[in-house]
Amino acid sequence: MKKFSFILLMTVLAASMSAQDRRHQQSAEQRFSPERFEAQLQEYITKEANLTQQEAAKFFPVYKEMQEKQRIQFDRQREQSKIKPTDEQGCMKAIKESDEIDLELKRIQQNYHCRFLELMPASKVYDILKAEQNFYRHMMKNWGRGPQNWGRGFGQGFGQGQQNWPRMPQGFGQGQHRQGPPGNNNQR
To answer: How many domains does the chain fold into?
Structure first.
């Protein structure tokens, strides 16, 4: 009986340790990975803007340079937001510094947009900027749904992933009035 109890105890302990190991491994896989995020962003922009390999090879090093400069300003913003001034003069200084950071971000963006235009036609740059905007919007929308959804729709084959994106109702934005419940054809 003691031998059976000992074997049962060891089996339960082994199963428990195995389950903890699996949970730890899953949580490590679900953590945010800047490298994975960057790879998904580049893949998405390349696909959506129809970039050739040559165009992508010219564009992404300059794009990464822009992101690094922007990151410095975002870090300044984050540090500034951690401290609440205690007096009017401190508040005024914080507001002005925040405005200066925003302006610097716009200057960086404008400078690099001009550089992008030197690398490729305006139509490609436009498509890149729209793709970037859509990527960030989609990622932020899925952010609150947990790490497993961060890249949802951006994995293998973007064509299939886009079916996960919400569709606008038929007639939305086309000047049509909202209709009542099904079967009710009265327009408002």
So the answer is: 1
